[in-house]
Amino acid sequence: MDKDIRLLGDIVKYKLADWNIPVRTYLLLESLLLLILSGEISFLLPFVQSEVTLQPLVVALLGVVYGYQVGVRGVAVYILLFAVGFPLISGAGWADLCHPAKLGYLIGFFPCTLIAASLATFHWDRRLYLSIPMLLVSLVCIPFLQAIFTNIWKSSFDLIGAISWSFIPILLQVFLGASLLSILWKAAEGYLESPKGE
Fewer CB within 10 Å: N-end or C-end of the chain? Predict the structure, then answer.
């Protein structure tokens, strides 16, 4: 294939362009749909005692797969929809956005997707042993900023204690995301080597 494939999403972008589908509009709608669905679907981890969503992983993967522009654009529009109280986002509204923990959580999406996208441009997403630290570093940004925003108004500041509750969910998301990226790159390499990939 003579097209330059640097990120996984480049394959999708080329296919959309071949089919005359507006690429930016499609990717924005796809990222919003993934962010909304991943924020609404939660599961309970018995040893964490809180509900966990895969939304942080989706934020990181948007940056890894499509690059920082798509990731940041999707996150910014999602936060805007959250602020105006978009009906498909539970707990959305200006009052919830002003809560320090929620604000820190949502602002953490920006460095998460930027770090993941930056490291993916150096092909950290192509090998499992590089995907794990890439996702770990990017996903830690979300609880880190959430802890800072939550504890900034308190007299005692326990950053390690505030982040420790999210350690196991982050590790689960890191290994899930790294495994998924490894599978997707193997499929992409097979697709690019086949005659249909041209």
Answer: C
The answer, yes or no, to whether residue 95 has pLDDT greater than 80, is: no
Determine the Cα–Cα distance for residues 180 and 86; give it in Å rounded to an integer.
30
**Closest to 77 (Cα-Cα) out of 118, 115, 27, 112:** 27
Number of domains in the chain: 1
pLDDT tier for residue 77 given thresholds of 50, 70 and 90: very high
Structural domain contains residue 3 = no
Residue 180 class from Cβ within 10 Å (0-12 exposed, 13-18 middle, 19+ buried)? Answer: middle
We report the CATH number of the domain holding residue 13 as 1.10.1760.20
Answer whether residue 90 is part of any domain: yes
Which domain covers residue 187, as residue numbers?
Answer: 9-197
Q: Is the pTM of this model over 0.85?
A: yes
4 in a domain, yes or no?
Answer: no
Structure tokens, 20: 């005359």
Angle at the Cα of 190 from the Cα atoms of 189 and 193, rounded to 5 degrees? 85
Cα–Cα distance for residue pair 145/102, rounded to 1 Å: 10
